[in-house]
Write a structure and sequence with these properties.
The chain is an all-alpha fold. It is built from 66 helices and four strands.
């Protein structure tokens, strides 16, 4: 997957770069110098190098989309290199019947390169000649039995047709003499366009015939369209529409006649096939309305009139299929320009009057669609044509030659869009229809709502459907709802009225505003239905939809706009020209984008002012949102959410009404109302959440109401849906809540700049600069608002605390309230003492959830009440006594030496402690110093420590009282040392923060109370007890940052024995917690402050007391502390290394692994980087020297190195060799650990260990090998993956050459596997050094002639890989060398006495001959997907050795077998590279002889 992404992104990046270099307008970005720009040769090389992998990726299992995008970008740069190979794959794929995937893959790639192909241009002038053959051959893809093939064919045809005018230009051959050869070919081919269009229609008709309901459904199945059918319908209609848009009038007339005959000579069911045919007819009428309507409208009207003349038809439940079909057809063909429909208005009105009141629902819905489409086409503003050239293709060929415009982009500055804008006549027609149809329906419903007339439910639904379709059709001509703005929702000195923008629609105020009329009647009807027949849900659904349209519909819906926007972007992406940029899209896309912009303006500009009518409608929606039936509630809520996000400040108005349902004192609330109100508060995933508005006024009422609702009679925790709702509500508030400001002051500088902006002009604002008194009034209001915000903040906390003190509150709501309370902690305002008291008490609450929240909250409170410590600037150069460095040099320098840990100058008295400048941040000073180094001022200038209770603030007193109380502490520690989730508990940073805050703010006051608990817990080896004391200790160590020396000293006198006990009691469950404890304690702390800890940990970590596990744990804990200190403790690292070196011959594996990890951290700072001083910490080179001395017994001997196994009764010193093996095992662990963690690889040092590792590492992959061999193999694998610098490559190669002369064939074999990985990981570094490439080549070729068969075969594999990735090239000297080796004569078989053993050592001649054959084999296998010029000859050379002695014969057979396997798929192309004689030989070799021959 990652490779596919690289394949897709690399060409895109090159196109982006090329665009910037050559076509982009100059910007403020630095211009690219000529020397750094891509040359033509660079581009050609890049495209050539990308083509092979991209062509392979076309048929990948992950899909051809990435390859298509890569080809699209490559074709923009070099169409002549990219398109021909894609065409070569596409033509056979279009012929194949058995491999549909091949067809879909090639077509999707052709879609990507379509524009480059059709445009032709200088680079690929013959491109356009391929278009017609491709289109004709793609037609069989319109296949009803294969959905994916059908869809990709539609997309393919639509893409090509969009780019090309379908005009027969063949007459130009006789009329014009200025045509090129390619243009003449295109002109003669264009005569086939008509044939193509008609054949395409035949295919579509066949598809439609096989899609009818009778064909595809059982009788019991649903009649609705399936998802696949709707996609096919979309593909068919959009492709046919594109074809007709691009047709000449002559071809269009033939197509129109054909589709008219098909539609009128058949009767289709209206669900699936009927929709497809109607879509095709609509496409025809949209392109040329006059001709199409002339054919369709009279025909459909006649049939409908003939059938509907009978009165009985109107009351039939099941209507005549012919009537339904013609009604559907009529409703679709009228979706054209309004002025073209006007001539048929009397016929259409007659049909509407006949059919709108049919009894059959299917019938009247089709009639409503007809009404909707007639109104919409007359009332909206939209483009009327999407042709690829302005003005269409209707000029004579002698004046205008369409083939010149193939693939031409639209001209953004001369789009010449033909707009439909409603004329006076059309507007009059719309209002005539509304008066005729809508008015009576409204009157009927009004009489029904007033109880004056009876109507059945079906009749009500029918009337509502008609009203809804009238609204959808003519909504754009209806002014927004009228009403008075709601005053006093927010107080502002700035005008908050909406800004109205002109979007092309002028409302005729003289006519009746039907939006208001519909609104009035709908509200009456809604109240009537809710009171008398609330179970009429279908009518309620319809009313909800109408209310939604009344409020928001002005010509288009947001969801429809979003889907069109999405599909527009997809089409744009598949056809865009990223190279030339500058919006060079096809004209249809540009027009579509303009239309989308128009719709976007219309959707967003109008109607955000909250008026009285909106208030009433939203109350109705709230009533529906809290009604009895869940589906009604759900739909009403969705409309309500949209409305809440539309009108300014309406949430403030609605919240009290919603909260009324949650009020416990309101006893009439039902469970449905309660749930509905909760959903209203929750909102949807993208809209407004009433419970969490960023405003004090709102959350000050919603949060307490949510908590208080726990006491409501309608609330039942037995109902899972209600419990889930409260969980979701609390979760959403926690996720989305952002701290609301309490201080809204604006700095004076900002006000001054704003004033300047207003008076500088250009442009001059409408509003004048506010006078001084107005500004003063504003300032006064702002101060008042700040005070009010603080009051509301405190009141909200008070309300939540009151509820928490209510004994009747269910536990769920107690948890919700505590959660809300925890969100109210803030940096700029301390929590009131009452809530501090609550949280501190909650530390000992029975509920685990409450305790967890309280721990976090109290840790936060500690931060709030922390007293600020004074800081003073310090000069680093004065501290070190030297001058500042001019250039930046990283690492250990004179000016940062004073920061490092030095055992001889540690602060051991109060005076030394006070005089020592502690720098807590570990990273300061290593690279450079902060511009202004701030340090803590002396002790006497800092806040007083150990205050008496009287000196404390109220909040501090609360905490002091509780934590001084032994009973409270007993209970608290008891809770903290409980197990939460067995096996999953970890060291808790929250508890650590709590203890850190306690000891930071209160000093050592609480130590006497905590000490006995710590001593007790440390002695207990239980996991949870150990974790608890670890959290306390780390908090204590970090919290004593500002304590005096005496206090710190006495603290360590207490802690050191405790830590020793803890480390001796350490278990498998707790060692990670202790590691985290020490690491956390040492983080961002000066090591000189913690010297007691480090000295204690360094005492003797590996002393064997407590067994190997405790040793490993002590090292782990020590490592955790030292790793945090990085470069500041070189002395400790040297001491630790000195201590560990004699212990490297450890027997136990866990200790060895831990020592390996510790060594990695000891040498972590030994990095070789530019501008970096050599480190004073331990260095790998010195360590390696010492190690190699001890490993001498292993490096000198030739015998095999076996793993050392511990004997039970082993006593005393072992020999040097055994010690060396044990040492080597630890060294391997270190090398493995450092591979993933160290900053740089120590190549020279590792090379010195290489020969030894090659000697040990096994060849086969076998898990049964001992630890030593497995580790050696892993180590080699990791070392070969390391990054090499240019200067290190010769060193590595010489080491490998030396090892390749080893007597052990295992070592020689492993050299090759090492070489493969190393070269691939450092490919570009190697390739930039020709000498290194030659060295690798010589080494591999030499090993091809190795006496050991396995080594020779691995050398051949290595060579093949290097050739395949172009690291080595197949040149004449190499070929000659291998051919010469192949010709080595073998000695005649020596006659032997019977019974004598055969000499198995191959003669030197056989080895050389085999080496030659292996070399040829490697060359052949290095090209698995193509046939280079040299390959046929090599295959012939190889075939001569088919009957040689083993192992040559086996090699030849394997090679031929692999060649056949990899070249099988494209053999038709590959065989072109061989002569007939060679093919004959090959066929003999590759085809096994027939068994019956």
């Amino acid at each position: 997957m990652k490779l596919m992404k690289l394949l897709q992104r690399l060409p895109a990046s090159v196109v982006r770069r090329l665009h910037r270099e050559r076509y982009r307008k100059p910007t403020w970005l630095t211009p690219i110098p000529e020397s750094h720009k891509l040359t033509e040769e660079d581009i050609t090389c890049f495209v050539k190098s990308m083509m092979q992998p991209v062509l392979l990726a076309m048929f990948s299992k992950t899909g051809s989309l990435d390859a298509a995008q890569a080809l699209q970008n490559l074709a923009l740069m070099r169409p002549e290199l990219v398109i021909p190979p894609v065409l070569e794959k596409t033509y056979p794929a279009l012929e194949t019947l058995t491999e549909p995937h091949q067809l879909t893959a090639t077509l999707s790639c052709m879609i990507g390169v379509a524009r480059s192909l059709v445009s032709g241009g200088q680079r690929f002038p013959e491109g356009p000649t391929h278009m017609l053959p491709l289109l004709m051959r793609a037609l069989p893809g319109v296949d009803p039995n294969d959905f994916s093939k059908c869809m990709i064919t539609f997309q393919f045809i639509a893409t090509f047709v969009t780019l090309v005018p379908l005009v027969d230009c063949s007459s130009a051959l006789h009329e014009r003499t200025d045509l090129t050869e390619v243009e003449r070919e295109m002109c003669s081919a264009s005569a086939e366009f008509e044939d193509f269009v008609l054949q395409f229609m035949d295919r579509c008709f066949a598809l439609i015939d096989s899609s009818t309901l009778e064909q595809t459904r059982e009788e019991t199945e649903t009649e609705k369209m399936t998802h696949l059918e709707s996609l096919v319908e979309l593909g068919l209609s959009s492709t046919f529409s594109t074809i007709l848009t691009q047709c000449s009038l002559d071809i269009f007339k033939v197509a129109l006649e054909k589709v008219f005959n098909f539609a009128t000579t058949n009767i289709f069911e209206t669900r699936v096939a009927g929709r497809m045919v109607a879509d095709m007819c609509r496409a025809a009428s949209k392109c040329h309305p006059t001709e199409s309507l002339k054919a369709f409208v009279p025909h459909c009207c006649n049939i409908i009139n003939q059938i509907a003349v009978n009165e009985e038809v109107l009351n039939e439940e099941e209507l005549d299929k012919e009537l339904l079909w013609n009604l559907q057809l009529l409703s679709e063909v009228t979706r054209v320009d309004g002025d073209k429909v006007l001539p048929y208005r009397s016929d259409l009105v007659q049909i509407l009057q006949l059919t709108l009141h049919l009894k059959c629902k299917q019938g009247y819905i089709l009639a409503c669609n007809l009404l909707h489409h007639i109104l919409r086409s007359s009332a909206l503003i939209y483009p009327t044509e999407y042709c690829s050239m302005p003005g269409g293709f209707h000029q004579p060929i002698s004046d205008y030659l369409p083939i010149k415009d193939w693939g031409r982009p639209g001209d953004l500055w001369n789009l010449d869009i033909r707009w439909h804008v409603p004329s006076v006549e059309e507007t009059s027609f719309v209002f005539y229809l509304l008066d005729l149809i809508l008015q009576p329906e409204l009157q009927r419903l009004q009489r029904f709502a007033q109880g004056e007339q009876d109507m059945g439910r079906d009749d009500v639904l029918q009337s509502l459907t008609i009203i809804q379709h009238c609204l959808l059709g003519a909504g754009s001509l209806m002014p927004p709802l009228k009403g008075e703005p709601i005053p006093e929702l927010v107080h502002s000195m700035v005008n908050l009225d909406e800004t109205t923008l002109y979007t092309g629609a002028k409302y005729d105020e003289s006519r009746e505003n039907y939006r208001d009329a519909v609104c009035r009647v709908m509200r009456q009807l809604l109240h009537y239905i809710l009171e008398h027949s609330e179970d009429d849900t279908k009518s309620l659904f319809s009313i909800i939809k109408i209310i939604s349209d009344l409020m928001h519909f002005k010509g288009s819906h947001k969801h429809e706009f979003d889907s069109r926007w999405k599909s527009f972007n997809l089409v744009k992406k598949s056809m865009e020209n990223r190279l030339h940029g500058r919006k060079q899209h096809i004209r249809a896309l540009l027009i579509d984008r303009v239309m989308l912009q128009h719709e976007l303006r219309r959707l967003t500009v109008e109607g955000c002012q909250y008026r009285s009518i909106h208030q009433e409608l939203m109350k109705d929606l709230l009533r529906l949102s809290t009604s009895t039936y869940s589906q009604v509630r759900s739909r009403a809520q969705n409309v309500l959410y949209t409305a809440l996000g539309t009108y300014n400040f309406c949430c403030r108005d609605l919240i009290p009404h919603v909260l009324e349902f949650l009020n416990p004192e309101n006893s009439t609330v039902t469970q449905q109302q309660f749930k509905g109100a909760l959903y209203c508060l929750l909102g949807n995933h993208s809209g407004v959440c009433l419970a969490n508005l960023h405003d004090w006024d709102c959350i000050a009422v919603t949060w307490p109401a949510i908590v208080r609702s726990g006491l409501s009679s309608a609330m039942s925790l037995e109902k899972p849906s209600i419990v889930r709702l409260f969980d979701d509500l609390a979760d959403k508030i926690h996720r989305q809540y952002e701290t609301i400001g309490v201080d809204f002051s604006i700095p004076g500088e900002c006000c001054a700049v704003a004033k300047q902006l207003m008076i500088t002009g250009n442009p001059v604002p409408k509003e004048p600069v506010p006078p001084e008194e107005e500004a003063a009034e504003g300032l006064k209001r702002q101060e008042l608002k700040n005070l009010e915000s603080v009051e509301k903040y405190k009141r909200l906390i008070g309300d939540l605390l009151d509820f928490l003190n209510n004994r009747n509150m269910p536990w769920k709501f107690e948890h919700i309230a505590i959660g809300f309370l925890s969100l109210l902690l803030r940096d700029d305002h301390q929590l009131p003492p009452s809530s501090v008291m609550f949280f501190v008490k909650s530390l000992n609450h029975d509920s685990l959830y409450v305790r967890k929240v309280a721990i976090s909250a109290v840790a936060g409170i500690m931060k709030q009440i922390k007293r600020p410590h004074k800081k003073v600037p310090v000069s680093p150069s004065e501290l070190c006594g030297g001058k500042e460095l001019s250039a930046i040099v990283a690492g250990d320098r004179l000016d940062n030496k004073w920061l490092q840990y030095n055992g001889s100058s540690l602060p051991r008295t109060q005076q030394e402690w006070d005089g020592c400048v502690f720098v807590e941040k570990t990273h300061w000073g290593y690279y450079c110093w902060p511009r202004k180094l701030m340090m803590y001022a002396p002790m006497e200038e800092q806040p007083k420590q150990n205050l008496t209770r009287e000196e404390m603030t109220e909040r501090e007193q609360i905490i002091y009282d509780h934590f001084s109380d032994p009973v409270f502490i007993n209970q608290f520690i008891e809770f903290l040392s409980l197990e939460d989730r067995k096996g999953k508990d970890k060291f808790s940073p929250r508890r650590f923060c709590l203890f850190k805050g306690l000891f930071r703010n209160f000093g050592d006051v609480f130590l006497p109370v905590l000490r006995p608990h710590m001593e007790r817990l440390v002695a207990d080896s239980h996991e949870s007890k150990q974790r608890c004391v670890a959290e306390i200790m780390s908090g204590l160590i970090r919290g004593c940052k500002h304590w005096s020396y005496l206090k710190v000293e006495s603290l360590w006198e207490l802690l050191c024995p405790l830590l020793r006990t803890a480390l001796s009691n350490i278990t498998i469950e707790t060692y990670a917690d202790w590691g985290t404890c020490i690491a956390t304690a040492c983080e961002s702390r000066d090591p000189r402050k913690l010297y007691w800890l480090f000295e204690m940990l360094m005492e003797s970590p590996v002393n064997g007391e407590g067994g190997s596990f405790v040793d490993a744990c002590r090292l782990y804990v020590l490592q955790g502390g030292l790793a945090q200190q990085e470069w500041r403790v070189p002395e400790l690292l040297h001491r630790l290394l000195q201590y560990l070196e004699p212990k490297l011959t450890q027997v136990y594996k866990n200790v060895r692994e831990r020592i390996g990890s510790v060594l990695t951290y000891i040498f972590m700072i030994d990095v070789n980087l530019p501008y970096t001083q050599p480190t004073t910490s331990p260095r790998i080179s010195d360590f390696t020297e010492r190690i190699l001395l001890q490993l001498k017994p292993l490096t000198e001997g030739d015998e095999e190195i076996q793993n050392h196994v511990v004997e039970e009764n082993e006593v005393g010193e072992q020999d040097e060799r055994t010690q060396a093996i044990k040492l080597l095992k630890t060294v391997l662990k270190w090398l493995i650990a450092s591979a993933g963690r160290s900053f740089s690889t120590a190549v020279p040092e590792q090379l010195r260990l290489l020969p030894l590792l090659f000697k040990i590492a096994p060849v086969e992959n076998d898990d049964s090998y001992d630890e030593l061999k497995r580790d050696a193999k892993t180590c080699l694998s990791l070392m070969s993956q390391g990054l090499l610098y240019t200067e290190q490559i010769p060193m590595v190669l010489s080491a490998l050459q030396e090892i390749s002369g080893s007597s052990s064939w295992h070592a020689r074999y492993t050299v090759l596997t090492y070489l493969q990985i190393m070269v691939f990981y450092n490919l570009f570094t190697y390739m930039s050094d020709q000498k290194a490439v030659n060295g690798v080549r010589a080494l591999v070729v030499r090993l091809l002639e190795d006496e050991q068969l396995e080594v020779r075969e691995m050398a051949a594999t290595t060579l093949s890989g290097f050739l395949q990735c172009n690291f080595l090239s197949m040149d004449t000297p190499m070929q000659t060398h291998f051919e010469a080796l192949c010709k080595t004569c073998l000695p005649k078989k020596r006659t032997r006495e019977l019974g004598s053993t055969v000499d198995t050592i191959p003669s030197a001649d056989l080895v050389r001959r085999h080496a030659g054959v292996l070399g040829l084999s490697a060359c052949i296998l290095s090209s698995p997907y193509d046939v280079p010029t040299w390959m046929p000859q090599l295959l012939m050379d190889l075939s001569a050795h088919l009957n040689d002695t083993q192992p040559i014969e086996m090699t030849v057979k394997k090679t031929l077998s692999n060649f056949r396997r990899t070249h099988h798929d494209n053999w038709q192309q590959h065989k072109q590279h061989f002569t007939d004689d060679q093919l004959l030989v090959l066929t003999d070799l590759l085809v096994s002889p027939c068994y019956y021959a």
